[in-house]
């Protein structure tokens, strides 16, 4: 066995992060590890990599005790959630550094680098510094660096978080090729469609292994008369329906219309907006309109221009050319008025890790200049909405991804804005937390709030009223999910949104 775990346990003070885990993984297996936020996936991966010691039990990796993997360290590849990129090095230099680190032969290095750059779509950006890449592009560069050598054991902790569907598909092709070469792969993932591609899947919850089997056998655990159950159905079933049934407070109506914004005017209006960074064109002549109260999905591969567009809409970046308005205010002339009347939740949740739940809320209440009586009311509302009544004194870095996500949303809508911008808000969050989050989004929209959201989850894109696809800075398609699928139907058969997404990109490349 490549991995042999027996009653493996890891405690952090009174918290048991991994509880009595027993598991064997043979050579050449592609093993998926899934679980809710805070289930113990990352702790398990760190113990497998030998970077975290265990409290009790036993762990043998490639025949060695994981307390000392010095002898086999060069045979283990490990990509953590925060992969070690060097921001002052270019894309090519980062890859070269890791190739040197693992003594990759020159001939193999050239071929493998070319292949990795092609699959990741990073080939045009080899001279760009890592610190100037978008979040998704950094994740893809981390993948390239992790895969530059061929280890006996490859450990990947949520490697495709924030990575677009095209690159995820190509990434899994590479994993399958590595498996054929005999590499043993353990991948922790929040994407249940990815877990279905694994030979076996282990489901962790509260540090315990609830189930471990092939995806096909796991789906037999759920009874369904309407359709074949998916791994997500299994996940929800085993987690318990009570986690989905946490009472949600009613979402307040949006704030009264601000002066300068007529009732009939759209929430967002752009006309030929462009943004250049030197010779690089990040956004190229985009025009679109978003009515009030709509859930508008903004899709596109990593580096397509989504985050740049949102930052212009939020008054953070000034456009190079074109014009537009948000909440009735000009994005060039009135950026500060826009900031006062919107909510913005970035890819990194916009929280201060060393502040407690209440301190983060107080910080944003100060930014939005909420009156003292209003501040107290809204603070309690956010805490109830986020399900953090018992964790109000906990630091943000102590919260699971789902809790931090809801807290960040609460901070973004603390001042009851009429428009909220959500930039990949559910990246890396487990299916239960994503469902609860989208319940909140839909409730906000029913109350008249306009929601402008980017996502790489195509099942989430189905929830949107309208979608726009941006690629290489240009708007490729706009329409409802059904309209976009009907336009690419073959013999009356509707494609999936992911097929539409990939097809439009490939078509754009050909032209």
From TrEMBL:
Recall the GO molecular function terms of this protein's record: ATP binding
Please provide an example of a Pfam family that matches this protein in its UniProt record: ABC_tran
Report the source organism.
Pelotalea chapellei
- Which UniProt keywords are given for this protein, alphabetically ordered? ATP-binding, Nucleotide-binding
Q: Residue limits of the ABC transporter domain?
A: 3-231, 268-497
Which InterPro entries does the UniProt record give?
AAA+_ATPase, ABC_transporter-like_ATP-bd, ABC_transporter-like_CS, P-loop_NTPase
Q: What is this protein called?
A: ABC transporter ATP-binding protein
């Amino acid at each position: 066995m490549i991995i042999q775990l027996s009653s493996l346990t890891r405690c952090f003070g009174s918290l048991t992060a991994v509880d009595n885990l027993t598991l064997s993984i043979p050579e050449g297996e592609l093993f998926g590890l899934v679980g809710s936020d805070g289930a113990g996936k990352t702790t398990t991966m760190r113990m497998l990599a030998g970077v975290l010691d265990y409290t009790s039990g036993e762990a043998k990796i490639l025949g060695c005790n994981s307390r000392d993997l010095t002898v086999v360290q060069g045979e283990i590849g490990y990509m953590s959630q925060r992969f070690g990129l060097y921001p002052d090095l270019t894309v090519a230099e980062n890859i070269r550094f890791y190739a040197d680190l693992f003594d990759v032969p020159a001939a193999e290095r050239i071929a493998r680098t070319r292949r990795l750059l092609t699959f990741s779509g990073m080939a045009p950006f080899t001279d760009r510094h890592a610190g100037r890449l978008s979040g998704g592009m950094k994740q893809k560069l981390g993948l390239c660096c992790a895969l530059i050598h061929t280890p006996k054991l490859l450990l990947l902790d949520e490697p495709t978080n924030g990575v677009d569907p095209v690159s995820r598909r190509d990434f899994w092709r590479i994993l399958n090729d590595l498996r054929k070469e005999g590499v043993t792969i353990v991948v922790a993932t929040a994407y249940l469609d990815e877990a279905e591609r694994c030979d076996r899947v282990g489901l962790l919850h509260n540090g315990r292994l609830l189930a471990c089997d092939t995806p096909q056998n796991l789906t037999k655990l759920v009874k369904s008369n309407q359709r074949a159950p998916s791994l997500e159905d299994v996940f929800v079933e085993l987690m318990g329906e009570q986690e989905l049934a946490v009472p949600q407070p009613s979402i307040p109506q949006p704030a009264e219309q601000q002066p300068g914004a007529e009732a009939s005017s759209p929430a967002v209006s752009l006309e030929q907006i462009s943004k250049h960074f030197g010779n690089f064109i990040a956004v190229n002549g985009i025009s679109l309109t978003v009515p009030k109260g709509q859930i508008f999905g903004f899709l596109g591969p990593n580096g397509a221009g989504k985050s740049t567009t949102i930052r212009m809409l939020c008054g953070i970046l000034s456009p190079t050319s074109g014009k537009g308005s948000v909440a009735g205010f000009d994005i060039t002339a009135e950026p500060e008025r826009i900031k006062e009347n919107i909510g913005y939740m970035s890819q990194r949740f916009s929280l201060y890790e060393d502040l407690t739940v209440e301190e983060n809320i107080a910080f944003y209440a100060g930014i939005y200049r909420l009156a003292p009586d209003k501040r107290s009311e809204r603070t309690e509302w956010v805490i109830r909405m986020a399900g953090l009544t018992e964790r109000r004194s906990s630091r943000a870095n102590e919260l699971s991804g789902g809790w931090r996500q809801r807290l960040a949303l609460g901070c973004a809508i603390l001042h009851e804005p009429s428009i909220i911008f959500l930039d990949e808000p559910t990246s890396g969050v487990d299916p239960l937390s994503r469902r609860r989050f989208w319940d909140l989004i839909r409730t906000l929209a029913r109350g008249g709030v306009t929601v402008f959201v980017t996502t790489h989850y195509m099942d989430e894109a189905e929830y949107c009223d309208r979608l726009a696809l941006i690629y290489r800075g240009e708007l490729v398609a706009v329409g409802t999910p059904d309209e976009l699928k009907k336009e690419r139907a073959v013999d009356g058969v509707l494609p999936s949104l992911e097929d539409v997404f990939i097809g439009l990109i490939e078509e754009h490349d050909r032209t």
